[in-house]
Amino acid sequence: MLPYILRRLVLALVTLWLLATIVFLVANVLPNDVGRTILGPFAPQETVDALNAELGTDDPMLAQYGRQMKALVTFDYGDSYQSKRPVWGILSGPLWRSAKLAFYALVMTVPIAVAAGMFAARKRDRLSDRTIVLAGLASSSIPEFVTGSILAVVFGVAFGWFPVLASFPPGTSVVSQLRFLFLPALSMSVVYFGYIARMMRASTIRALEADYTRTAVMKGLSQSQVMRTHVLRNAMGPTISVISVQVGYLFGGIIGVEKVFNYNGLGQTVLIAAKAKDLPLLQASVVIIGIVYMLSTLLADIVIAWLNPRARLELGS
Amino acid sequence: MTDTHSPDEPRRSTVATEVPPALAVEDLEVAYVVRGIPRQVLRGVSFHVAPGEAYGLVGESGCGKSTTAYSALRYLPRNGRITGGRVLVDGSDITSMSDAELREFRASKASMVYQDPGSALNPTIKVGPQVVEAFRILGQSKTEAQTSALHALQRVRIADPARVLGRYPHQLSGGMLQRVVIAMALACNPRLLVLDEPTTGLDATVEAEVLDLVRALRTDTDSAILLIAHNLGVIRSMCDRVGVMYAGTVVEEGDASQIFDRPQHPYTVGLLRALPRRGLRKTERSLATIPGALPQIGADLPGCVFVDRCELATHECRTVPPPVVDLGDGRSSRCHHIDRIPEIREPEAGAVVASEGETVLQIAGVSKTFRQSGHDVPALVGVDLSLADGETLGLVGESGSGKSTLAKAILGIHAPDAGGELTLDQRQLATKISKRSSDDKRAMQIVFQNPDSALNSAWTVRKILRRSVQKLTGLNQQAADDRVAVLADHLRLSPRHLDLKPSQLSGGLKQRVAIARAFAGDPRIVVCDEPTSALDVSVQAAILNLLAELQAEQRTSYVFISHDLGVVRYLADRIAVMYLGRIMEIGATDDVFAGPHHPYTEALLSAVPSVDGEPSTRIRLDGEIPSPANPPSGCVFHPRCPRFIEGTCDREEPPMVEVSLGHVIRCHIPPDELRVLQARTAAAADATEVDAVADSVVSDEPR
Ligand SMILES: Nc1ncnc2c1ncn2[C@@H]1O[C@H](COP(=O)(O)OP(=O)(O)OP(=O)(O)O)[C@@H](O)[C@H]1O
Ligand SMILES: [Mg+2]
Q1: So what's the ipTM on this one?
Q2: How far is the CA of B57 from the centre of ligand 1 (A)?
């Protein structure tokens, strides 16, 4: 197990390096005058040049790349080009907010989606199953900003049950934060419900048709006992993988949702940094999202291995 | 061995008629809904199994055996419907039970064991809790259930049961798992135990152990057994009575020995004649086949279900369903023409003439060592062999004995270790396939157990064959097409088949295509790796006949790997017995079967349940084949050898001793001594046979 985790971590480092390189390349393929972007079209050329010299953005590409790599290794991204404030200082707020929202959305989605998936599998091909499958398919194919807007209009504006804007003032109590975040979390939920429920349904069906389930039924166990002790554990694995991948997405921020509810999370930050060619900020946020993504998939694999000794065996080898 | 009960002596049930049968299937009709249309699979199946009786169901794949078995426990696939008839277990009709009653029935009255023990246990839960569960459901407390679980594993003779309880299923071998499954099945002391192909997929020696176990357990429970197995030998050795199924109907029923020795239905006759029985050799006669195929499910069969494949069929058979003719003694047959059964012809004698030829292939000192996670795993150790022109060499041995590795070494798929030599037609052969000339590659071909792996599913048969012909011979398109036509003719593939894709063909036809492909370039040697193991007996017979004919015509040599000793005996001219990568015995087929045998060969031979019901010597091998990574010292077979001599066998490698011309045994015990020892064991077995008869006479007395 431990060697496996080590191997995964090494792999994660390689992935991060690739990620950082890609971001660097993408940020530099376009004609790139950071000073001009920051200072605007009317600033005198000398000021722009001076700024570029100060930021080091007129250095040869290789030197700039070297600095980025150094930043990746030391985890020190320095100051943002745009605001001159330390990158980590700027990022900590959105990071925390995104984490809260993602966690909220997950807590809301996973239990319901898993239960719905299992229920659908048990009622396979009946009306309730068809309904769940169709609802899941529909909900995950509507873009989240559409869902978000509809929810905002219905529950925020029309009924006025929840705040339309999610950005709560500082010092808001946890309970009322939950109220503020309810609509954005729900919109994310709606999207991911479909993925998780469908995955759970498929893997439950597979487990229900497996020989070991037949053995359990033949022992005379009741359906709920069979589901609990035999089906659930086996069916959870693939679903956990799906969830872990989605944690990465949720964390990266769903820009649409952040926009609709004017919630300043990582998604918005990335967008702003990209627009402003604020490379340190961009790199740092992408690397953070990458790390979260990799940690969540690693965690998922560990949980799966814990659930299923055969998977453990594969990890060990 | 405490079990002196002979397998071949049916236990006549002494049960009076008042006691309800353990299982009564009455006019059962089952349909599967396919694309919205119910298609009939069982067409009025009726049979009874008395308490304590073992009843066998046999028949070709797809005839509805499993469907019957699942109906008997009301566990049909989702699209299955019982459309008529009743199933009574211990007197109560399970077709009308509520869910709760059904659960209670499964918990306490009936159990099932099926093929592939590897998937029958939940992979995520340790064995212990899974066995415990079977006792908890009977209302035992947790501690009681734990004790019971331990006892249950002891009862199925698992070594170190406490340790096994703490393991996960994937940490156990197939044989151990099947024992665990059987232990769980017996937890409730069921009235009815259904076994659907319980030993298919297990090695012959493991199969023998599991069957022994079931047989022994039968003496201390009075569970009725419904056994399904495609291996008729297994059925004969286990069952008191047998039902022969065809197209969802029981066509013949009766005492096991009677069914197998004096079949009274054309289908049973065909099935049995397709088997190489009583030591039949290819030189005596070809095997009988049953032409045609099982009707599709849902087909409309107004007359006799077997009419399309029956030699005796008349107009009456097409239109009038045959009556169930009672032949007395519990025998019955569904046939209009029972009196004409003796008219069914045996195939003509003397299909193939065996011939001695020049040596084609010579293998000297071939070893193959795999590297596995830092360890050397010697899969082949110093193998010497020769293969003559037009000869078939049978390779037998448990799985893991190195049969397939040897085949692959010959083909150059696994290059053997340095030092080994392969000679083809007196020329040294490169060990790696990539270094072989195209002529050498063409000279050696392989046919696998599973034809799918060798056939491109996207192509038509014609294209598959044409490609092989062109690749192997370099003929142009026109000439290749002609050659394909010739091949197809030889393999009895009709032009219609040539335009189909593999997925549209039956297993037997696919295997024919695979053989045709192997023969595309006039090979000198064809390696056949279990080519008929996945096929029904009648299809197997056709393939074996074909292989024999092709060989007689083209003087191709075969290396024939099979775990079915009857099949090997039929086809092979010589046999090599392998164990842990070494050849333990090699010789002409008749010599190897006649003995004296290597103790390992002796054990293999006695592990095989025979359809002919010969008394078997029942040598049992303990434990499993050791890992080749750390082979035992001295003779590698010594830890499992019943004739092990301490101080010699565990210290020194045995010599190769020539018993008679060309018959060599790798054993410390001199052949003459082996002969005496083996004769003694056989005599002892005959004596138990007599005891068993005496036993059954005693048990015929009212208790
Ligand atoms: N769920 C299903 N839906 C449709 N057809 C089925 C289903 N299960 C089995 N069949 C078909 O029903 C027929 C009988 O199947 P069954 O499994 O009972 O045969 P079997 O005698 O056990 O064969 P085998 O020896 O291969 O196990 C076959 O033609 C099979 O293809
Ligand atoms: Mg079956």
Answers
A1: 0.79
A2: 14
